[in-house]
Automatic annotation (TrEMBL):
Residues in Acetyl-CoA hydrolase/transferase N-terminal domain copies: 9-181
GO biological process, one term: acetate metabolic process
Name under which the protein is recorded: Acyl-CoA hydrolase
Gene3D superfamilies: 4-hydroxybutyrate coenzyme like domains, Acetyl-CoA hydrolase/transferase C-terminal domain, Glutaconate Coenzyme A-transferase
GO MF entry, a single one: acetate CoA-transferase activity
Keywords recorded for this protein, A-Z: Hydrolase, Transferase
Domain Acetyl-CoA hydrolase/transferase C-terminal, chain residue ranges per copy: 274-429
Entry annotated with the keyword Hydrolase: yes
Pfam families: AcetylCoA_hyd_C, AcetylCoA_hydro
Family recorded in the similarity comment: Belongs to the acetyl-CoA hydrolase/transferase family.
Length: 439
């Protein structure tokens, strides 16, 4: 490819490059192609065993809608969206277990070669670069390892500053014109009273100059809401996902990044996912740096900033502190993402703190059930091991499990459970030897 000028072709001509048995890469989140996807779907009857990697589909994928039984396309996802989850339930979407920050290394060392990569990016600029916008992640590694690189252009993607956040024309084989659709949005949710109760416990642990990582969901973003109402200042941002809550803190002047050791003065992220207000905030804004995920998520990098505060959700946690954040039994829901890497990186940061938060209960088939349990649901995947767990937070309190014995962990977790379930959990803990007699 070196030195070549990419050729402009139609989406149908680009789709014609795909052969049965090929490995394709659709890129990540807002970098996934749309017009190419539709053109490839039209070829479904003539193709077999076309394997496609993707991550977090925000819109329906034409290849899956055209092939509801998975006879022509195989879909492999690094992290599920709600749409990917539905296709997994239908048996045509498959999860790849990962730590998100390691994925570029997987491409370079372990994955089958990419036959065709199709990434949505901004039109070429005056320097010959197609900017990836707010989804950097492992696009750079995909480009390096692909036999054919196709860029689907979309001027509606925000122009995002950063490092390696684009591909030069000399590395691109073909360019197709996209449909100009604005990047898909993830609407914010209004924090519930439980969300705010959890956030209040975490707020007491956040100091001026803290460096924030916020995960997806209502509880982490409720912390941003309370930070706006607090006097905490001089915050920094070093996160995998840039959220509306973090952007709102920036717009309110609470984020200066002045105390960060890495990228001082700039908010660092690997992908942005939220509303139009978020995309407008990062568009051509040098205060934000969109970096490859290995530069945001690896624990040895995270720990170089002081007072890192990592706030993430889980769905179930046992009395010893194992957090299951990505599955419901054998049904896969989302993915490991960067949760474990930020749990470890925050703990290792000087003055750093990791928070795993959850509501104490949930409703299923009209019945209230506890998220804090003696044993995880059979088949549930442990996302964060007990040995890595630091702070656990529910609406009933906060507990630091570091350095605690199994018995003390069990007692602390029971104290975070809904009062309705505490006696049963205490009896179970004694029956199974987690809390010794007389302790």
């Amino acid at each position: 490819m070196g030195g070549k000028t990419p050729r402009h072709i139609s989406a149908a001509e680009a789709a014609a490059l795909v052969k049965s048995g090929d490995w394709l890469d659709y890129g990540v989140i807002t970098g996934q192609p749309d017009v190419f996807d539709a053109a490839l779907a039209a070829r479904a009857p003539e193709l077999r065993n076309v394997k496609i990697r993707n991550c977090l589909s925000l819109r329906p994928r034409a290849v899956l809608e055209a092939d509801p039984r998975g006879e022509h396309f195989l879909w492999f996802s690094w992290h599920f969206s709600g749409y990917d989850r539905k296709k997994h339930d239908a048996g045509i979407s498959h999860y790849i277990p990962v730590n998100l920050g390691e994925i570029p290394d997987y491409y370079r060392r372990f994955n089958d070669p990419v036959d065709v990569a199709i990434i949505q990016a901004r039109p070429m600029d005056a320097n010959g670069v197609f900017n990836f916008g707010g989804a950097n992640l492992w696009h750079r590694a995909i480009v390096e390892m692909a036999r054919i690189v196709i860029i689907e252009t979309n001027p509606a993607i925000p122009l995002c500053h950063g490092e390696d956040n684009g591909v030069h024309a000399s590395e691109v084989d073909f360019v197709i014109e996209g449909n100009g659709a604005p990047p898909a949005e993830l609407p914010g949710t209004t924090p519930t009273e439980v969300d705010r109760a959890v956030a209040r416990h975490i707020m007491n642990e956040i100091e001026d100059g803290a460096c924030l990582q916020i995960g997806i969901g209502g509880m982490p973003n409720a912390v941003c809401t309370l930070l706006l109402e607090s006097g905490v200042r001089d915050l920094g941002i070093h996160t995998e996902m840039l959220t509306d809550g973090l952007a709102e803190l920036y717009r309110a002047g609470r984020v200066t990044n002045a105390r960060k050791r890495l990228h001082p003065g700039r908010s660092v992220y690997s992908f942005a996912l939220g509303t139009r207000a978020l995309y407008d905030t990062i568009n051509d804004n040098p205060d934000f740096a969109c970096l490859p995920v290995e530069h945001t998520n690896m624990p040895h990098i995270i720990m170089q900033n002081e007072k890192v505060v990592a706030i993430n959700n889980t769905t179930q946690i046992d009395l010893q502190g194992q957090a299951a954040s990505e599955s419901d039994g054998h049904r896969h829901i989302s993915g490991t993402g960067g949760q474990l890497q930020f749990v470890r990186g925050a703990y290792a940061s000087p003055g750093g703190k990791s928070f795993i938060c959850l509501s104490s209960t949930y409703e299923k088939r009209g019945e209230r059930r506890s998220r804090i349990v003696l044993n995880l649901t059979p088949g549930n995947i442990v996302t964060a091991p007990r040995s890595d767990m630091m702070y656990v937070v529910t609406e009933y309190g906060i507990a630091n499990l570091k350095g605690k014995s199994v018995a003390d962990r069990a007692k602390a977790m029971i104290g975070l459970a809904h009062p309705e379930f505490r006696d049963t959990l205490h009896r179970q803990a004694r029956e199974h030897g987690l809390i010794p007699r007389g302790y």
